[in-house]
Amino acid sequence: MDMGIVGKTALICGSSKGLGRGCAEALAAEGVNLIINARTVLELEETAEDIRKAYAVEVKTVACDVTTIDGRSKILNTIKKLDILVTNAGGPPPGKWHDWEREDFLAALEANMLAPIMLMKTYLPSMMKQKWGRIVNITSQSVKAPLANLGLSNAARTGLTGYVAGTARQVASHGVTINNLLPGVHDTDRIVSIDKNVMKTEGISMDAVKARRKSSIPVGRYGTRDEFGAACAFLCSQHAGFIVGQNILLDGGAVNATI
């Protein structure tokens, strides 16, 4: 299927590895020129070079932490106009309700709610003016089914979801769509970190942790960044103009819900 986005320009946050990189590669495969972002310069430049070699697209880099005001300022000073925005930031640490103080919640809100909101507020006006734009926020399956040990993430990402629900419907008539992709368990560094935490806390092997987690996923495996990226590319395509304000699970069926 021709996605109809050849020559568009996309900013993909947190895209040197993991799900963000999957989105970047999938968009590059559709002929989209990229601005990729991550905190670590070396990893970011290596990823950019890999994508340049694999696809005939322009790839620029902006090394910064989008969860900080200074980091976002660097992006905003570098990039004035976009066709596609994919927001993404690593989730806050796991724990229990009594582990977190006010500062922990503020950090989670800054990273996983306010950062994407500020980026959207910056680029929505130009998208609306040109009568076309696509925004995809990478959130979490915990928006649909909260995870007890990810209370910080549950709170921050649900706040973002509420903001998107209203905003997406205000900008849709201008040809701009905003949707959220809700990953479940994918084979990424984030999941490795969470699995290691379970291994340490429960005193069991990594194989045991993975086997138990896979047994809770109907497809019986972890997701891949490639299939996640393909879903992102479709939401950014010309064919997705009638999909507005949706929260789309990519979790292998792990969330057991009718709606």
Give a description of the structure.
This protein is α/β, with parallel strands linked by helices and 259 residues long. The chain contains eight helices and seven strands. Strands 3-2-1-4-5-6-7 form a seven-stranded parallel beta sheet, with helices on both faces. α1 packs across α8 (225-235). The longest helix has 29 residues, at 102-130. It is globular, with a radius of gyration of 18 Å.
Helix content: 40-55%
Uncertain segments are none
Order of secondary-structure elements: EHEHEHEHEHEHHHE
Number of helices: 8
Beta-strand percent range: 5-15%
Write a brief caption for the model.
The protein is of the alpha/beta class. The protein has 8 helices and 7 strands. Strands 3-2-1-4-5-6-7 form a 7-stranded parallel sheet, with helices on both faces.
Topology:
Blueprint (H helix, E strand, L loop, with lengths): L8 E4 L5 H12 L3 E6 L2 H14 L4 E5 L5 H10 L5 E4 L14 H29 L2 E6 L12 H21 L4 E8 L5 H14 L3 H10 L9 H11 L11 E4 L9
Helix pairs in contact: 1-8, 4-5, 6-7
Distinctive features:
7-stranded parallel beta sheet; 47% helix; 14% strand; 259 residues; single chain; alpha/beta
